[in-house]
UniProtKB/TrEMBL annotation:
It comes from Flavivirga aquatica. Keywords: Iron, Iron-sulfur, Metal-binding, S-adenosyl-L-methionine. The keyword Iron-sulfur applies. Its cofactor is [4Fe-4S] cluster. This is Anaerobic ribonucleoside-triphosphate reductase activating protein. It holds the Pfam family Fer4_12. GO terms for molecular function: catalytic activity; iron-sulfur cluster binding; metal ion binding. The lineage of its organism: Bacteria, Pseudomonadati, Bacteroidota, Flavobacteriia, Flavobacteriales. The keyword Ion transport does not apply.
Length: 149
């Protein structure tokens, strides 16, 4: 699988410093998509096990979580990278536009964000959102962490 970009982010997973990989080839085509450059398959750099491990090694003592923006459409590769991240003591999160993902992926996640982008409903920081940020272990909805008072 290929990633369009990689950045260190602070807000997408509350309380965590996350290494965020935006995976290209998104098949969902949400209306009003904020990242249509992610639709085309094979865009960006190859994210194989070696390339991923090199990045994890650089940020080993700085970041706490690995976050994938998509990639569930490459189930086998994604699971392999999630397992590697866990082995190196990173927590794991997936942002997907789907309502659910394969159980084999879910098992490797600490958190998952589900739900398509619906412009009129807003994202996680909106009280009307259709999206959910879930702690996988407890199945608890943690959307309240994104809502500013
Ligand atoms: S899931 Fe995200 S990247 Fe894919 S079409 Fe929807 S908004 Fe765009």
């Amino acid at each position: 699988m290929y990633y369009y970009n990689f950045e260190v982010v602070l807000q997408e997973v509350p309380g965590e410093i996350s290494l965020c990989f935006s995976i290209s080839g998104c098949p969902l085509r949400c209306q009003g998509c904020h990242s249509p450059f992610l639709w085309k398959e094979g865009v960006g750099d190859l994210l194989n096990k070696n390339a991923f491990e090199e990045i994890l090694n650089v940020y080993n003592n700085l970041a706490t979580c690995v976050l994938f923006m998509g990639g569930e459409w490459y189930e086998k590769e994604l699971i392999e990278l999630l397992k590697l991240a866990k082995l190196k003591n990173f927590k794991t999160c997936l942002y997907t536009g789907k309502e659910e993902v394969a159980l084999a992926i879910l098992r490797e996640l600490t958190w998952i964000k589900t739900g398509k982008w619906e412009q009129v409903l807003g994202g996680l920081n909106s009280i009307t959102t259709n999206q959910k940020f879930i702690e996988v272990k407890t199945n608890k909805n943690l959307n309240y962490l994104f809502i500013k008072n």
